[in-house]
Amino acid sequence: MISFKYKIRILLILLIGLKISAQNPKAHSHNDYEHKIPFWYALGAGAQSIEADVFLENNELFVAHNQRDISKARTFENLYLKSIEQVTELNLTPEKPIQILIDIKTDAKSTLQKIVSEIKKHPKIISQKTFSFVISGNQPKPEEFTSYPDFIKFDYQHLINLTPQQWEKVALVSLNFRHYSSWNGKGGLTEEDLPKVNNIIKEAKKFHKPIRFWAIPDSKTSWEFFANAGVDYINTDKPKECVEYISTLKSRTYKNELFSEVYTPKFLYENKNIPVKNVILLIGDGNGLSQISSSVLANKGQLTLTQLKNIGLIKTSSTDNFSTDSAAGASAFGTGKKTKNRFIGVDTEGKPIENLTEILSKKGFNTGIITTDEIVGATPSAFYAHQKDRGMEKEIADDLAKSKLTFFAAGGKSKVPDLPQFTLAQKPEEISTSRAERLAYYISDKGVPSYLKGRGNLLSDLVENGLQFLNSRKKPFFMMIEAAQIDSGGHSNNTGTIVTEGIDFDRAITKAVQFADQNPGTLIVITADHETGGFSIPHGDLKTNTVEGDFTTDDHSATLIPVFSYGPKSENFTGVYENNEIFHKILSTLKIK
């Protein structure tokens, strides 16, 4: 037998490591006694219903799946009653109620009589209110329910109405799922089975008791269906995984109400020998293919981004890490050389490398940066700064003062010294009409709010006005535009942030594509520095613009990243290549060595 100290250790590890929120539905640890550590594992995992199959043999209650599996040490007393008493004595009683569902496999009356007598030997258990005992399997008739003590309730397995007194003794209603469907938990229920199952749930709900199905498929897809269908207890042999899934389901599911009006590009300059004059590089920080997909699905199936035809893929690993960070990723775009994570505009030895804005400034280009991050953030700083760590914000801000940038719009004013060489715009609409030699607009004193926290249409407004400002100067220009907070949604495992920031990014993309259609010679490149969150989209609803996201990490991943391009020479950006090739392809299209 596993020692009591080991059980406590397992319980505490699980309770500390698991983020359990108030959840509805609840996990039912099916065949709990088959786990290596019965009761304790389910309790620590956060299950709120724990099942034990019992056999009465030689006036002893044994816990087993089949009679042939009975072991003398595995009694109901040893595995469950003593464990509950230990939890009570150690003041480890969970705040949420736990039901012990006792599935009687032998004669109903004699076995139940023994169960009652065994529980009565533990008055501390009877007096506490957290743990309750619910009789399932072989049961007395409903008219006999009221003859049993208050601490005994029943698992009713029919849809036949009872008297009010009998319903008082019922803890939940349980039904065999296989009577209604043979679904294996993959994909969705058939068109024939779905209304049948939903109707049965509706019928069961009329009794105003929690409901449970047994014999359900044990998968995330199944858990998601039953959770959204209104089932109160979900049968599972994987209580820890199930609790983690259903307790985070609501927070991972987002019903979208922000929409990007899809613009259809004119494709006037694709595959034509038109010289590239302007380059707009748009970076969705953390915006992998699943992030893009979530925005597409939540935006009624289309984005302006998905109207573009030229698509490639980049490999993003840095020189010292399988998964790049924004500093190394943006530095690869900005300088044409891969470098170490956290390095800004320097090579692997820490030596400065000339970046796009510096190179192009010498060639007579105006240059600009727009970001929903602070201006000293990793991605924007890679286009003007040279430091060995992205955290060296003071030094990065000093590099901004020495930069050749014509224009920038970003957050983080408090982290930047006075820049007398820049005229400050007070409103986004002032940018397009400004005649300043060099112009800056601060979105915020520190961090920039997300769309969900009130940023509104600011990014697309800044893109529209910023492009007009650079274009009014009658010189070619390079503009880097970053939608920084898709990355934030990945790090915080927040589906809503990913979806809305991605759709807001598409509104900025729309402004850029419209500008390109109106200004021949404008090349647009749209990509990301990396993916964040190991994000996937297991479920959703196209009709309600709802997306359920799931995550494998709260950090970056090394998945290939899409590159979309539009305008003259955009065909040069197709294929699969390293991220630093973006730099070289941009200079090549401009015919700059």
From TrEMBL:
Keywords: Hydrolase, Phosphoprotein, Signal. Residues 1-22 form the signal peptide. GO terms for molecular function: alkaline phosphatase activity. It holds the Pfam family Alk_phosphatase. It comes from the Bacteria. Its EC number is 3.1.3.1. SMART domains: alkPPc (SM00098). The keyword Oxidoreductase does not apply. Belongs to the alkaline phosphatase family. This is Alkaline phosphatase. The lineage of its organism: Bacteria, Pseudomonadati, Bacteroidota, Flavobacteriia, Flavobacteriales.
